[in-house]
Structures are given as structure tokens and as C-alpha cells.
Amino acid sequence: MSFSRLPERYAIVRFPPGAALPASFLDTPGFVSITRSREELSIVCADSTVPETSRSERGWTALKLHGPFALDEVGILSSCLVPLADAGVSVFTVSTFDTDYVLIKAAQADTAVAALRKAGHIFHDDPAR
């Protein structure tokens, strides 16, 4: 698998389930993920776009797995989540039709990248590549 690290710092924001989707998130360039369930509205977005009054957890780094991957392909996330779990790195994942994103706390980014490299994964922004 190959990855790249997205340049922004990210936040995971929680709104009540019936909350209106803030229009500002739809106009945000770059990576944004919006998920609504019966229990909540969750948005992953750049730290800089989070309203101060929102319930959020900031300080995440996003690693993009380079796809696309077939929807019936097995073991995509497992191949990177197992090495991260073994290294004690907690994750928040987001999947799209074509690929997956693994968010890790920025403070654990070096540990995460080292664990993924050790497991044989490569980084597109890696100068040694």
C-alpha cells in the first residue's frame, strides 16, 4: 500500500443528529467527510474551519491510502491498522468509494509512519523513495 500525508491538521466535529449541516463545510476545499446517523452528525474537516462553539477533537493528521480499491477487495484497512495497533497508535478511519483515510493524532504521526514503513508501506512524499 502507498500513502500520502495530507497537509492540513484536522478535527472531528460532532453535532446533534438533527442539526442542520453548516454550509461552510460544503465550501471547504480539500478533504471533508460528512456522516449523519440517527445518533449524530459527524464532520471531519480542517482544524481552521471548526466553529469555536462546536464539540470537537482537534489535532489529527490524515493519511490517504492511494486507491482506487475495488469494493470487494479484502484486507485493505487491515494491512495498515494492524501495524498501527501493534505500535499503540489509535485511529479514526474514513472510507470513500475509491479509497480510505486513516486519521491519527498529530502527536503520534512519527510513530505511525515508522510502523507503516516497517510493515512495508510506502509514502509518496517520502524523499527516500
Largest sheet properties: 8 strands, mixed
Overall outline: globular
| Count of discrete domains | 1
Question: What do we call the CATH topology?
Answer: VC0802-like
Walkthrough of the structure:
With 129 residues, the chain is of the alpha+beta class. 19% of the residues lie in helices and 34% in strands. The protein is built from 3 helices and 8 strands. Strands 1, 2, 3, 4, 5, 6, 7 and 8 form an 8-stranded mixed sheet that branches. β3 (33-36) and β4 form a beta hairpin.
Itemize the secondary structure elements and their pairings.
Blueprint: E1 2-5, E2 10-15, H1 23-26, E3 33-36, E4 41-46, E5 55-65, H2 76-86, E6 91-95, E7 100-105, H3 109-118, E8 122-123
Parallel strand pairs: 1-8
Antiparallel strand pairs: 1-5, 2-4, 2-5, 3-4, 5-7, 6-7
Provide a short characterization of the protein structure.
This protein is an alpha+beta fold and 129 residues long.
Tag the structure with descriptive keywords:
alpha+beta, 129 residues
